[in-house]
Design a protein that fits this description.
Blueprint (H helix, E strand, L loop, with lengths): L2 H18 L20 H11 L5 H13 L4 E2 L2 E2 H18 L14
Antiparallel strand pairs: 1-2
Helix pairs in contact: 3-4
């Protein structure tokens, strides 16, 4: 799977996960992988595993959904809602440029 293909699907899945995200007392949160198309799930999972260190967006999203799953109000000292808005802004920038390299050097929001 190419990075172009992966991130077109991933950003859509991440948006859906952010829309549906909420704390439900189960200590789990449905991250982007819950929304991968079934027929592409395996390829998506492999791409993400092989590229975790190459794209900081994976860590940013993981930290958000982990904090949500544990009903935390902050991530790295940043309000969870602000963190969510930061992820949405990253997605917006990607949609404007369709440049997946944007996800390589994405920074965590500043407090």
């Amino acid at each position: 799977m190419t990075a172009d293909t992966f991130f077109k699907i991933y950003t859509s899945s991440l948006e859906k996960a952010l829309e549906e995200s909420c704390f439900d007392n189960s200590f789990s949160a449905k991250g982007p992988d819950w929304w991968f198309p079934e027929e592409k799930y395996y390829e998506m999972d492999i791409f993400e595993q092989e590229n975790t260190l190459n794209f900081t967006i994976f860590n940013i999203a993981a930290d958000y959904f982990d904090a949500l799953a544990h009903n935390q109000k902050e991530v790295h000292g940043i309000a969870l809602e602000y963190f969510k808005l930061h992820i949405k802004e990253i997605i917006r920038q990607y949609k404007e440029t369709l440049d997946f390299n944007l996800f390589k050097n994405t920074s965590f929001p500043k407090p």
